[in-house]
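#onboarding

Welcome to the new folks! Below is a worked example of what a typical request in this channel looks like: someone posts a single protein sequence, and someone else replies with the predicted structure as tokens. Don't worry about understanding the tokens yet, we'll cover that in week two.

Example request:
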Amino acid sequence: MPPRTGPVALASALLLGLGSPAVAACPPDGGLTAIAAVQGSGTRSPLAGREVRVQGVVTADVPGLGGFFVQDPRPSGDPSASGGLFVRLAGSAVRSPPVGETVRVAGTVAEVGGMTELTAPTGLRSCGRGTLPAPRPIGLPLPGPAGWEALEGMRVRIDVPLTVTDVYQVARYGEMTLAAGRLFAASQGAPPPAGGGGSVVLDDGSDQRDPRPVPYRFPDGLPPRVGDLVRGLTAVVMEAHGGYRLEPTAPPELVRANPRPPAPAAVGGDVEVASFNVHNLFTTLGDRGARSAAERRLQRAKVARVLAGLHADVIALEEVENDGMRTERALVDAVNAVLGSDAYAAVPDPAAGVGTDRIKQAILYRRDRWTLLRSASDPRPVFERAPVAATFRSADGTVLTVVAVHLKSKGGCPAAGDVDRGNGCWDLRRNAQAQAVIDFAAELQRSSGSPDLVVAGDLNSYAGEPPLQLFRAAGYRNADALVPAAQRYSYVYMGRSGTLDYLLASPALAGRLSGATIWHIDADEPPLPGTPAASDDVYRTSDHDPVLLGIRGVP
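Example response:
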């Protein structure tokens, strides 16, 4: 929001916001401009920059945004022109009139952040108590921006429950995104929700950063997760920060429809393989990973609890600090401390190296069940982070290879070349990397003498994108196929869910998969430093969910 304007001179007879009794209605005034005429039928007011005087009923007082909303109780006759308007006051000493008061106010029409407002008011007069305009019932999705623009500044009501689709900003700015159902990334390949794909931001009526307590939360102090519901929503429509949002006029009801899973679902089988992007697990303190020794202890403790909860035979990790083996050794000690045994060990960095990126892949394994035969990596320059592989042998001689991968991210776009063509930037590079992993895996199968191999890691590609198609064409089976369709996501970005984290079984293993799960402990959770969620439990340990696969016939 822009800064508030300068002081406002109020009429000397103003008695608003002081609990005063109703006064007589204002006399007729031919100098009034209808609010709908101020709003107009387009995205900008036809009266921008002009001085006008309007009359309406106060529908919401939002001191956190520096003003209040008024609405004309009479329909304008033009459904494309809103009958509501935001009046921006100035200075904390100026109090908004009470909700339900009919007021006249003069000021300059302005477009602020895309929203039509009345700024720099020069007169504000009470006309007595009025009748609140009934909120207009709406549903999602609305027909594009024009549908929202026609409601800007007006009271609305949504009777059906809405799904929380994004909570990334709930602790930072007190806002979360709602839709008619969970929304998936366009290239995920998932069907759209039954209610369509429209979404809207639910705001808290303030621009305060890091509000405490978090404005939307359950009785236990925790805010909603993606997948929870909001119902009974009555609000005023506002436009700001590049989109439309709802400012509630009464607290909506929160419904826990997506409770925290205490443990991963059972996947069966004789051996389990997992993958987990640990979101910059660094031992070094600095600009990446933990910023203090206390944060480092908390992060390591949380990751250790997650890995102990997975209890997989082999665990591929992504975004581990590339610092030799210092971070893995500390993590193994922490996992074993949680388990009360020396069950896990870390695969040493291969002799060919892991690349020069600040992060790398690592592999942990249960040394009480498996013997490490060799580790290998593919240091070819097509990779920023070299794939790391480990081949193991069980007590009965069964050989299994796991390849930990982390393909190029979608961010850091170049000015030309491998730009975003629908799948994010660097799609061509990810495709080349995926093919290189397939070739590297084939070499590992030949050298180990066993076709049993799992590619595990963060492919930075949604399920419908070319890298997954390349693996499918090579005969690999995506373990996501064993996960219910509504649960196929490991990451939430800008309110859209999708899978970035995969366990891909080689053709020899494709028919022996017993089950798979995505443990939704991170992607649905808001980042909540300084709140009850910032504890050493497993929730919001990372921004990616861990994935787990069961395989039959591998003792």
